[in-house]
Design brief:
With about 260 residues, the chain is an alpha/beta fold. It has eight helices and ten strands. It has one domain: Rossmann fold (3-Layer(aba) Sandwich). Helix content is about 35%, strand content about 25%. Strands 1-2-4-3-5-6-9-10 form an eight-stranded mixed sheet, sandwiched between helices. Strand 1 and strand 2 form a beta hairpin. The relative contact order is 0.15. InterPro entries: AB_hydrolase_fold, ABHD10_acyl-thioesterase, Hydrolase_4.
Length: about 260
């Protein structure tokens, strides 16, 4: 089935592609991962499920991703966070559940912080898949090779082959430096809402130890951690998608 064309929202001069379906609250807000787009398997699965349920669903592409404008290499966590907040503010009404995949989990946690700061308490829950908050500082920087450090110093970026795309991942100095300004795993994280984390134990990109560290920083009475024995970073097998839908459904029913 061909997806309907997106609508576009101008955020600081960049055209951000958005797909929004109105429906019951709490609505579902999808936040994708690094170099992924809103037409991926998990986002589309949630789109189909929310349509069937009559529940509101919102998704967008960050700048440099999918159908949005801008260059991928110009993006930072702050840039993509600002775009996500702008989309959230423009298209949502009432209570919402943020569903963040990989880097999208970092964006979701930062969104909660910024929304709370602005007096907005409309986040009813978080469902985080293979969460990668602080990945620039926690996962990328400690593993930098001499060649990568040299590339960052001389060119301002380095490239890595991607298992998920024909195009390489690009990591820039700006991304890494800006990441340090958005760290969330430096102390207790009070989300003021329930959190459900889905983590594959066969994840080669974000180790399960990262999810366990995150759990340790969240209020334990509101956190569920589901470890998936053979789940990889994508969590896109039929059984993974079923668990995603069941997790979001349970969170939505709790938030009604």
């Amino acid at each position: 089935m061909t997806a309907m064309p997106p609508t576009f929202l101008d955020v600081d001069g960049t055209s951000i592609a958005v797909r929004h379906a109105k429906g019951a609250a709490p609505g579902i807000v999808w936040l994708g991962g690094y170099k992924s787009d809103m037409l991926g398997t998990k986002a589309q699965t949630l789109s189909d499920w929310t349509e069937k349920e009559g529940r509101a669903f919102l998704r967008h592409d960050y700048s440099g991703h999918g159908e949005s404008g801008g260059a991928f290499a110009d993006g930072t966590i702050s840039t993509w966070l600002a775009q996500s907040l702008a989309v959230f503010g423009r298209f949502t009404q009432g209570r919402q559940i943020l569903v963040g995949s990989s880097m999208g989990a970092w964006i979701a946690l930062r969104m909660v912080q910024e929304l709370r700061k602005a007096g907005d308490s409309n986040v009813a829950g978080l469902v985080l898949l293979a969460p990668a908050p602080d990945f620039t500082a926690e996962l990328v920087e400690p593993a930098l090779t001499k060649a990568q450090k040299r590339a960052l110093a001389e060119k301002g970026f380095f490239e890595e082959p991607s298992d998920y795309s024909t195009e390489p991942y690009i990591y820039t100095n700006a991304l890494i430096e800006d990441g340090r300004n958005n760290l969330v795993m430096t102390g207790p994280i009070d989300t003021h809402c329930p959190v459900h984390i889905l983590q594959g134990l066969a994840d080669a990109d974000v180790p399960a130890s990262h999810a366990l560290k995150l759990v340790g920083l969240l209020p334990s009475d509101d956190v569920t951690l589901s470890l998936i024995p053979e789940g990889d970073h994508r969590l896109s097998r039929p059984q993974d998608l079923d668990m995603l839908v069941r997790s979001v459904d349970a969170m939505a029913r709790k938030g009604n």
